[in-house]
Design goal:
Layout (H helix, E strand, L loop, with lengths): L2 E3 L6 E3 L1 E4 L12 H14 L3 E3 L8 H10 L8 E6 L1 E4 L2 E4 L3 H15 L4 E6 L3 H4 L4 H19 L2 E8 L2 H9 L8 E5 L13 H6 L3 E5 L20 H16 L4 H9 L7 E5 L3 H12 L4 H11 L11
Parallel strand pairs: 3-4, 3-12, 4-5, 5-8, 8-9, 9-10, 10-11, 11-12
Antiparallel strand pairs: 1-2, 6-7
Protein name: Aldo/keto reductase
Organism: Palleniella muris
């Protein structure tokens, strides 16, 4: 397994890393002991970067992860969490104000049972784009509040996340240089979507480390198929299902090829996947360590064809 630095942060992380969203039962109802074991398995396999958010399971994922972290030496992992997107009583909420994001950081520290957050991200900035103040509020209020916490040593580094990389680019362009140190952009470096290729030079020019997420494109590249809420159009779903069938017929699990492809580019520091099943965590790690079949990658992308350029909006 390769390890790469996230931008210029000094954090050298495993190419495949653990996303803790599943611990919040966002995909299926999970059991506590199994969830804890999934975290321990990730660490034992050598994954040293964990990403979570108060939004996942409406604080549940952070709470469960915090229980696991009690039993893991702090020098075994870097931890990333987020601000701006929340939820209570089954209802999603958003608040990117300086007061709320500052308070959110301290709440996360308590739930996670740690005293320092290595990377704090503004979660899915496109939602602030639809709120009063738009993305300018991220520049003028949200990020300065997090930079203050960085200066105080409460957090180590500051980043932003979004499905739409053009939003990330806009914010970086309108902030003082060095404000944004990392970006998490999901579903745009996978077998069915290579949009991040268009942004590598820009991010590197500004010393912004790149974190990829969802190598299975939220289920598009899985034998199970997409969940009902998936925002991709039917044309893309159908194309991916054809590609999945083609790969599976060759006895090469689509999940294996998808993970191998997502971690294959050294310009991406790490790719996050999420599972509350320790057996799946170990299996994904084994996938990552096996050699990739590049001919099969070409066959898959030929099947998906023009649908590789299809975009969809976050939900």
């Amino acid at each position: 397994m390769n390890y790469y630095e996230i931008g210029k942060t000094g954090m050298k992380v495993s190419a495949l890393s653990f996303g803790a969203s599943s611990l919040g039962s966002v995909f299926r109802e999970t059991k506590l002991e199994e969830s804890l074991e999934a975290v321990y398995t990730a660490i034992d396999c050598g994954m040293n970067f964990i990403d979570v958010s108060p939004y996942y399971g409406h604080y549940k994922a952070e709470t469960v992860l915090g229980q696991a972290l009690k039993n893991i030496p702090r020098d075994k992992y870097y931890l990333s969490t987020k601000v701006g997107r929340y939820g209570v009583d089954g209802k999603n909420t958003w608040d990117y104000s300086a007061e709320r994001v500052t308070r959110s950081v301290y709440e996360s520290l308590e739930r996670l049972n740690i005293n320092h957050i290595d990377l704090i991200n503004v979660h899915d900035i496109e939602f602030q784009g639809d709120l009063p103040g738009g993305l300018q509020k991220i520049v003028d209020e949200t990020l300065p509040a997090l930079v203050k916490l960085r200066d105080e040593g409460v957090v180590g580094h500051v980043g932003i996340t979004d499905l739409q990389p053009e939003n990330i680019k806009w914010v970086i362009e309108h902030c003082p240089e060095g404000t944004v140190e990392a970006t998490l952009c999901f579903c745009h470096y996978s077998l069915n979507d290579e949009l991040l290729n268009d942004y590598f030079d820009f991010f590197e020019k500004h010393n912004v480390g790149i974190i990829n997420a969802s190598p299975l494109s939220m289920g598009l590249l899985s034998s199970r198929g997409v969940p009902a809420w998936h925002p991709a159009p039917k044309s893309l779903v159908d194309a991916c299902q054809k590609a999945v069938a083609h790969v599976n017929e060759k006895g090469y699990p689509i999940e294996k090829l998808a993970i191998q492809y997502a971690i294959s580019n050294p310009r991406i520091a790490t790719t996050l996947f999420s599972s509350a099943n320790p057996a799946n965590v170990k299996k994904n790690w084994e996938y990552a360590e096996a050699p990739i079949d590049w001919e099969l990658v070409k066959e898959v992308q030929d099947i998906i064809g023009d649908q590789m350029r299809v975009r969809w909006k976050n939900s």
